[in-house]
């Protein structure tokens, strides 16, 4: 079985010609990219795809690269070989994601994989990559267990939910000190795939440790089409704070249901994802205002890092939208992977894996407000960090940590008829 797997892995990577382990200038460096390009999260997938394509265009010198950006620009150690992104559509389905990963490895002969936004799809797709011995760089998925599997070929640039959920409770403690009000009653409202289930466990654990009361805990069916009964339960429990993990369709549905049933907590803390998708505010308008969300990127941080605005301008010029936390992480994933391949000077899987292990990108080379990118022994970037943003005036503005905030928190959320 092991021999067969090794043979398949070798066959899967035979599309490139190797002399001394380096690609010739005319070779393509094929990278498989797996996103939800159809289905409920298709609009998210389109933005992720656009961000990945922007990164590849910068790497390939199709457009000028902003000075200081670390992205393997021009692939000098690969004799100018071009990045070729080959896309797979997982449709939000873990089994389809696994099938697409296998297709990209065996039929499309990709050198490495990236994706897949949905944590449960990343889990299955990366299992396939692990079996074939192909590097998998995950830019967006935040389920903490993804880097607890002792995988050899899996690397993740984004921070994970352990950090994000901890930040929520630190933020609430800071808000209590600032406002003098108690925010100890929380309602947990999360979708029931890997991401939402793990988030709920973390939130429950930290609530107990930090003496917060869980007024209501609801795991709703992913891709649900109605939330009336769930929102009625939240309204009856009347928590001061809702912590919510939702993808785009259910984030929009929940907000509409909140308004229809006249429910509004003092604060809604969103776990990114659907609440930070560009379509969320396009659809919700003023009803999407004052949502607070954990985030890894914000345009207003450009005052501290000029690369943020420079690269965002390119994104807006090409796709018509600003980056958000999802697409900025997708861009960064491709940039980090391209940098590693270039430093490896090779498309051999083991060489790329070694280069990823040796990655040490400074904060100044990123569009993210992180300390850099450096992977620990589990493949987790240990230099990532989170911020918290709030929708104010149709923009996501940084409100925490307070020392990097550009706006104060609007608290409590204004009533539906006061907007």
From TrEMBL:
Record-given protein name: Branched-chain amino acid transport system substrate-binding protein
Keywords associated with the record: Amino-acid transport, Signal, Transport
Family assignment from sequence similarity: Belongs to the leucine-binding protein family.
Lineage: superkingdom: Bacteria
Span of domain Leucine-binding protein: 28-392
Lineage: Bacteria, Pseudomonadati, Pseudomonadota, Alphaproteobacteria, Rhodospirillales
Organism: Azospirillum rugosum
Residues spanning the membrane: none
Family annotation (Pfam families): Peripla_BP_6 (PF13458)
CDD domains: PBP1_ABC_ligand_binding-like
């Amino acid at each position: 079985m092991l021999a067969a797997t090794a043979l398949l892995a070798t066959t899967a990577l035979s599309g490139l010609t190797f002399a001394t382990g380096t690609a010739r200038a005319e070779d393509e460096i094929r990278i498989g990219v797996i996103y939800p390009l159809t289905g409920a999260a298709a609009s998210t997938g389109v933005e992720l795809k656009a961000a990945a394509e922007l990164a590849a265009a910068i790497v390939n010198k199709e457009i000028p690269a902003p000075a200081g950006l670390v992205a393997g620009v021009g692939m000098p150690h690969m004799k100018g070989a071009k990045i070729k992104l080959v896309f797979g559509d997982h449709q939000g389905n873990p089994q389809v994601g696994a099938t697409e990963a296998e297709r990209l490895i065996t039929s499309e002969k990709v050198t490495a994989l990236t994706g897949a936004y949905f944590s449960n799809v990343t889990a299955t797709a990366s299992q396939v990559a692990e079996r074939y011995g192909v590097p998998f760089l995950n830019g967006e998925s935040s389920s903490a267990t993804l880097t607890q599997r002792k995988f050899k070929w899996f690397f993740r640039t984004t921070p994970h939910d352990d950090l994000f959920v901890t930040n929520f409770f630190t933020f609430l403690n800071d808000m209590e000190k600032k406002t003098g009000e108690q925010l100890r009653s929380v309602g947990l409202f999360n979708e029931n795939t890997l991401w939402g289930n793990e988030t709920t466990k973390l939130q429950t654990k930290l609530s107990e440790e930090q003496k917060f009361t869980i007024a209501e805990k609801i795991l709703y069916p992913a891709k649900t089409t109605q939330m009336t009964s769930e929102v009625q339960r939240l309204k009856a429990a009347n928590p001061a704070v809702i912590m919510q993990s939702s993808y785009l369709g259910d984030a929009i549905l929940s907000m509409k249901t909140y308004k229809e049933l006249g429910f509004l907590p003092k604060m809604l803390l969103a776990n990114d994802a659907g609440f930070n998708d560009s379509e969320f505010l396009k659809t919700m308008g003023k009803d999407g205002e004052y949502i607070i969300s954990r985030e890894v990127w914000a345009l207003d941080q450009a005052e501290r890092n000029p690369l943020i605005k420079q690269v965002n301008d390119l994104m807006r010029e090409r796709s018509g939208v600003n980056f958000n936390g999802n697409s900025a992480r997708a861009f960064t994933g491709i940039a980090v992977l391209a940098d590693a391949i270039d430093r490896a000077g090779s498309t051999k899987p083991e060489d790329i894996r070694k280069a990823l292990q040796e990655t040490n990108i400074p904060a100044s080379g990123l569009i993210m407000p992180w300390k850099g990118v450096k992977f620990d022994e589990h493949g987790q970037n240990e230099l990532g960090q989170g911020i918290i943003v709030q929708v104010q005036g149709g923009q996501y503005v940084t409100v925490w940590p307070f020392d990097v905030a550009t706006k104060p928190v609007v608290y409590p959320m204004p009533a539906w008829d006061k907007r």
